[in-house]
Amino acid sequence: MQIIEQPHTIIETGIVAGIGFFDGVHSGHRSLISNIISTAQSRDMSSAVITFRNHPREVLHSDYCPQLINTFEEKINNLSETGLDYCIVLDFTVEMSQMSAFEFIEFLIDNYSLKCLFIGYDHRFGHNRSEGFDDYAKYGKILGIDVLQAKMYMPGEKHINVSSSVIRKLINEGNVSEAALLLNHPYALQGYVISGYQIGRKIGFPTANIAINNLHKIIPANGVYAVRIIVNRKYHYNGMVNIGNRPTVHSDGEICIEAHLFDFSGNLYEQYIKIQFIARLRSEKKMNGLKELTDQLQKDKEHAMNILLNSSISY
Ligand SMILES: Cc1cc2nc3c(=O)[nH]c(=O)nc-3n(C[C@H](O)[C@H](O)[C@H](O)COP(=O)(O)O)c2cc1C
Ligand SMILES: Nc1ncnc2c1ncn2[C@@H]1O[C@H](COP(=O)(O)OP(=O)(O)O)[C@@H](O)[C@H]1O
């Protein structure tokens, strides 16, 4: 997948594109993307998505800090797995927010060789988002391109509407296993290992404390999780993670994210680790001392191993 960040890019074949923020690149997004790819193939054109580097609401409201599933880099990585030819990245600006839907479609045609635009079933764009699909289709006719409506994607018997906001809520509540099903991959946090209070090693459960390097990432609800851990983008481990303020040993209220890797010993300080959340095990509890905490951690380890060995969620 080629990333296009500059306007005035001529793509000889013309492009069939979808437009959106694509937070999470979830199974609904992937269904839209496979429609884009097959339509592009049938028309001998290239496939693309048009997305934004920054969240549009952040530009319009400067004090708004959106909580998101993906960093920009994670989104690009996920999109590049889908088989798309191009990802067109726009920097959303105040001027762009003033464009009408007609002007915006015209801008895409003039700058990126747009020939066919897929629009999500509920997606709206253009100043004040006042128009709907029928208007976009009409503008497409005037401007000489096809505007097609993507169907709503509702997998399985549950008839859950897969959307980024549903998945964000699930992650927030700690329901990471349901989030992974809708995403088609586990939710992940990444960052460098920093030092903690060095109690973990004394109780037989050393924990790598992670500093998350992005303000926008959703932190799952406090609690204990079965996870997969990737060290330095290369070495994979099963493990468990605690998110919380460790009421048994500290009461400073600061939330920390700490991972215990199974079958690992060594030094992880300053290493880069990625945590993939597979399932929630329990809430964080205040124990009566370190012995009770250690016994509980042993049980958590067995519980986590059981889940991880039987999990069908892919990496
Ligand atoms: C899987 C897991 C579950 C944990 N559960 C709790 C808990 O329920 N209550 C609590 O106070 N601390 C809990 N902890 C945090 C421990 O108190 C913490 O790992 C220990 O104090 C070591 O901290 P350190 O890395 O700063 O040395 C848990 C840690 C892990 C890895
Ligand atoms: N199995 C393991 N899981 C997590 N960290 C481990 C493991 N084995 C060794 N370590 C190392 O031990 C450190 C954690 O030990 P701990 O006593 O909890 O110290 P800290 O309070 O600094 O996190 C980790 O940052 C890592 O360098």
From TrEMBL:
The keyword Transferase applies. InterPro entries: FAD_synthase, Riboflavin_kinase, Riboflavin_kinase_bac, Riboflavin_kinase_bac/euk, Riboflavin_kinase_dom_sf, Rossmann-like_a/b/a_fold. The keyword Endoplasmic reticulum does not apply. It catalyses: FMN + ATP + H(+) = FAD + diphosphate; riboflavin + ATP = FMN + ADP + H(+). Its EC number is 2.7.1.26, 2.7.7.2. GO terms for molecular function: ATP binding; FMN adenylyltransferase activity; riboflavin kinase activity. One of its GO terms (biological process) is FAD biosynthetic process. Pathway: Cofactor biosynthesis; FMN biosynthesis; FMN from riboflavin (ATP route): step 1/1; Cofactor biosynthesis; FAD biosynthesis; FAD from FMN: step 1/1. Pfam families: FAD_syn, Flavokinase. Residues 182-309 form the Riboflavin kinase domain. Gene3D superfamilies: HUPs, Riboflavin kinase-like. Keywords: ATP-binding, FAD, Flavoprotein, FMN, Kinase, Multifunctional enzyme, Nucleotide-binding, Nucleotidyltransferase, Transferase. Belongs to the ribF family. PANTHER family: RIBOFLAVIN KINASE, RIBOFLAVIN KINASE/FMN ADENYLYLTRANSFERASE. Catalyzes the phosphorylation of riboflavin to FMN followed by the adenylation of FMN to FAD. This is Riboflavin biosynthesis protein. It comes from Coprobacter fastidiosus NSB1 = JCM 33896.
